[in-house]
Amino acid sequence: MDAFQLQGHDLDSLRRVELPEPRPGPGEVRIRVAAASVNYRDYALATGRYQPELPRPFVPLSDGVGRIDALGEGVEGYALGERVIGHYTTKWIDGPFQSANHASKLGGPLDGWLARQIVLPASAIARAPEFLDDAAASTLPVSGLTAWAALQRMALPAGASVLVQGTGSVSLMALQLAVARGLDVIATTGDAGKADWLRSMGARAVIDYKQRPDLSAAVRELTGGRGVDGIVDVVGGPQFLDLLNAAADNAHIAVIGFLHSMQVDGNLIGPIMARQLNIHGVSVGSLRDLQAFLAEVDARRIVPIVGARFSFEQGARAIASIAQQRLVGKPVVVFD
């Protein structure tokens, strides 16, 4: 089977290899992959920035879609040829998160989607929305579900304000879902050329953080001095202090990413206590959450934003593209 493996801790260790054709065991399905999308996590793993302790080699990419081409013994409820996506944290079926679930993640430590075929438990797949093409459907399991889970944890009512950062895949889905739910969205960008595009997607206002480095002051100007009710933080690092000061009383902050870093030095406790802020660590959700997210995507006809498209042969290049200036939207590897 044609596949890519991450064999080390840098991009040069992404190798195209020939692996034995996988066969589904009892309770499993084999999927012929049609498309797989790239998350920042994939790039961070491939560059050794994130979880360098994970055993290598493994097949990268946590998100994908394809059609079932073999059924293991005892599989019920699915048929050959059905188009499905995989649940990233394969053992998190329902209920609250448990740390043991980390060991069941696709694209490290378990083999992911950058291969012609993948075998998954039948309990860890879901039918892809029929109205989406393969590229769009492939973006949903990680970044899409994470954005949905963040908004669920914040539980903001219609009309409440929410801040989203940039044009990465989590932020874009958070923007699309928030607009569909009737929230007042403020977006940030460091690219003036993207501001109008973000407004066209439904953001009421856009802050260019290169022109307005005092983010909290800019947010308060746009909210009558009160701050925002919710924040989807994908950046991390020192700017988290600015986010705390941009938050309204009793606001919710979903901590999702570390595009800058995981290190924050400064006064965290004071603003959290003074304004009774709610901090949520968010990373995807359970299979039941994925199913609820897909139902909302289907009901609201939300089409994820697909960025650059790569062929299977360009798999390593697709992962490397995360660090480069690229189209708005999530990079996708389209197989055939």
UniProtKB/TrEMBL annotation:
<dbReference type="InterPro" id="IPR013154">
    <property type="entry name" value="ADH-like_N"/>
</dbReference>
<dbReference type="InterPro" id="IPR011032">
    <property type="entry name" value="GroES-like_sf"/>
</dbReference>
<feature type="domain" description="Enoyl reductase (ER)">
    <location>
        <begin position="9"/>
        <end position="333"/>
    </location>
</feature>
<dbReference type="InterPro" id="IPR020843">
    <property type="entry name" value="ER"/>
</dbReference>
<dbReference type="Pfam" id="PF00107">
    <property type="entry name" value="ADH_zinc_N"/>
</dbReference>
<dbReference type="Pfam" id="PF08240">
    <property type="entry name" value="ADH_N"/>
</dbReference>
<protein>
    <submittedName>
        <fullName>Alcohol dehydrogenase</fullName>
        <ecNumber>1.1.1.1</ecNumber>
    </submittedName>
</protein>
<dbReference type="InterPro" id="IPR052711">
    <property type="entry name" value="Zinc_ADH-like"/>
</dbReference>
<keyword id="KW-0560">Oxidoreductase</keyword>
<dbReference type="GO" id="GO:0004022">
    <property type="term" value="F:alcohol dehydrogenase (NAD+) activity"/>
</dbReference>
<dbReference type="InterPro" id="IPR013149">
    <property type="entry name" value="ADH-like_C"/>
</dbReference>
<dbReference type="InterPro" id="IPR036291">
    <property type="entry name" value="NAD(P)-bd_dom_sf"/>
</dbReference>
